[in-house]
Specification:
The protein is built from 16 helices and 9 strands. It is α/β, with parallel strands linked by helices and 452 residues long. The longest helix has 29 residues. It is elongated, with a radius of gyration of 28 Å.
Length: 452
């Protein structure tokens, strides 16, 4: 009986096949892996077969993987042998995928590899039939084993030659604003993907509200924010977002329910608040939750952990400071793994309770947490400051620009409104020009010390 079952990707649909071809272009290790088992005829649509052939031809000729920029040139100049309809389909397809992320990446990769490897194994078994009649068992074993090895992961890291083009692509950081223009200037527009930011403050100073402010700003930019709360109830945190976004007082949110609803419905971003009891969740718990979101095509742009010191360590260490250091390293790892920025907070020791300016020396328990973070600012508010809705930011660490700067702020905890003041009677916030001059002076001093 003839088997009419089609050996191509048609049963998975057009979207699946387009996503697969996009991944072959943007993910060189995956392209290496699937090239061993992919027959371009598995692709149902002709323009996709042409697209993948052009990628493979370029790799074979130049021994490097093409970039999006290279493919633009190929599509513009190297389709003369294709009919006009195919050329148009291919250009339209490339225009659609150029700035569009792939949904369900792992599903597409795993499904395509599984399908292709089974076809290769089937071919090997068919070839073995004649050898079986001749009792060539060693040869059969070799053919089957070789087929089973095809399509295994071949990612050994960044290949200096094959990935040559990749290092000449301009890096786009796409930072998320803090909502404080004066602070954004310091670290090149805001918080970038894979970066860890830490707010240092004593108990009761408002570090949780600072985190809400940062998350609310991301929502205004249309970003997806996942906010983990280990101290407050999820509804309490959500209420703070209501107040921060609408400026209605926390104490009167129920009186303005309808007005708040109308305003938050216009927010383009997505906020998910996940509550865990104190010390019940670890970074592994967060990773599991983020994996579930990713499987539902919910990709965070910002992760907020309120706050990192309250996470449970994945593995027990001899000393608490080592546990905390590991937790902060793992949080930064989450940002790198999921391609988003991470904000958290850390509590100061007693020296920071009524200090006018809090430095990193006041960070509680583990100073090594500072080594992991990309950006650290402290929030200090004396008793008098709280009465007058004032306070200070101290930029304690900044990988992307100057640090050691003090900014005076106004902070109204009644409706979660925090802003950096342009000037004060005592110490005006530095302008971008002044900050540049300060950085220049620091660099010159550093050079002089080296010469000594």
């Amino acid at each position: 009986m003839q088997n009419n079952k089609k050996t191509d990707f048609s049963k998975f649909g057009k979207d699946f096949q387009e996503s697969l071809c996009q991944l072959i272009l943007q993910d060189r290790p995956f392209a290496d892996q699937i090239m061993e088992v992919l027959d371009v005829n598995f692709l149902e649509l002709h323009y996709l077969r042409v697209f993948v052939r052009k990628i493979f031809e370029y790799r074979e000729k130049y021994m490097v993987h093409p970039t999006y920029k290279i493919m633009i040139s190929i599509i513009r100049s190297d389709l003369q042998n294709e009919n006009p309809a195919t050329q148009k389909q291919l250009r339209n397809y490339f225009a659609r995928i150029h700035d569009s992320p792939v949904s369900g990446t792992e599903y597409v990769k795993n499904t395509a590899l599984d399908f292709c490897r089974k076809q290769k194994l089937k071919e090997a078994m068919i070839r073995s039939v004649g050898l079986l009649q001749r009792s060539s068992f060693d040869e059969i074993s070799k053919i089957i084993n070789d087929a089973l090895k095809l399509g295994d992961s071949s990612d050994q890291g960044y290949d200096f030659v094959k990935d040559f083009e990749k290092r000449f692509v301009k890096k786009v950081r796409n930072p998320i604003s803090t909502g404080w223009p004066e602070i954004d200037v310091l670290f090149k527009g805001g918080h970038g993907k894979g970066e860890l930011g830490v707010v240092i403050a004593p108990t009761g100073a408002g570090k949780s509200m600072a985190l809400v402010h940062l998350g609310a700003q991301a929502l205004k930019e249309g970003k997806t924010v996942v906010h983990y709360t280990l101290e407050l109830a999820d509804t309490v945190v959500a209420g703070r977002y209501d107040s921060c976004l609408t400026k209605y007082p926390l104490s009167n949110l129920h009186d303005f329910k309808d007005e708040i609803y109308k305003e938050v419905m216009d927010i383009e971003g997505v906020l998910l608040v996940k509550e865990y009891p104190t010390k019940s969740a670890s970074t592994r718990t967060l990773r599991t939750h983020l994996d579930k979101l990713r499987s539902r095509d919910i990709l965070p742009d910002m992760i907020i952990v309120d706050y990192g010191d309250l996470l449970r360590p994945v593995s027990g260490k001899n000393e608490k400071r080592h546990e905390l250091e590991s937790i902060y390293e793992e949080m930064r790892g989450l940002g790198q793994e999921f391609g988003c920025c991470v904000w958290t907070a850390s509590q100061t020791n007693r020296s920071g309770l009524n200090a006018e300016v809090i430095t990193m020396e006041a960070i509680s328990e583990a100073y090594n947490k500072c080594f992991v973070a990309d950006f650290i600012f402290s929030l200090s508010r004396t008793v008098t400051d709280k009465q007058q809705n004032l306070g200070r930011f101290f930029i304690a660490k900044n990988r992307n620009g100057p640090d050691g700067l003090v900014y005076h702020i106004s902070m109204d905890t009644s409706n979660v409104q925090i802003r950096v003041l342009d000037s004060t009677g005592e110490a005006p916030a530095l302008s971008a020009k002044d900050q540049g001059e300060l950085l220049k002076e620091k660099y010159q001093r550093f050079r002089k010390n080296l010469k000594k």
